[in-house]
Design a protein that fits this description.
The protein has helices at about 25-35, 45-55, 65-70, 75-80, 85-95, and strands spanning about 1-5, 10-15. The protein is mainly alpha-helical and about 100 residues long. It has one domain (about 1-95). It has a two-stranded antiparallel ribbon with strand order 1-2. It is globular and about 35 Å long. It starts with a strand and ends in a 9-residue tail after the last helix.
Length: about 100
């Protein structure tokens, strides 16, 4: 693990850049990670991130299908919000580990 400074906060990340301690996450960190991915966060993005964080806290397995069934956004909308691997990108922005289902 290594430490990086993002949004003025020092956080620990794994070799792929995912935060290892989700409790360190905040909205400013999310904005910085999103900017690195070329994404400007909207309210819809934040709804999805909140959903991901809640499910992670509950110990639920995160999948694209589960996001599509969440009622927050459909699968096509999820891909539009987080292009380039929506579950990987959104998980990183949400400050949670990369889901096992992502390569």
């Amino acid at each position: 693990m290594k430490e990086i400074e993002i949004a003025g906060v020092t956080v620990q990340v794994n070799e792929e850049g995912y935060m290892t301690d989700p409790s360190q996450w905040n909205a400013d960190i999310a904005k910085e990670f999103a900017a690195q991915a070329g994404i400007e966060l909207t309210d819809k993005h934040l709804e999805v991130l909140k959903f991901l964080r809640e499910k992670h806290t509950e110990g639920k397995t995160l999948t694209i299908r589960a996001i599509g069934k969440s009622g927050i956004v459909d699968i096509k909308g999820f891909y539009a919000l987080f292009p380039g691997g929506p579950l990987k990108v959104s998980s990183k922005i949400a400050g949670i580990p990369k889901p096992v289902s992502c390569v």
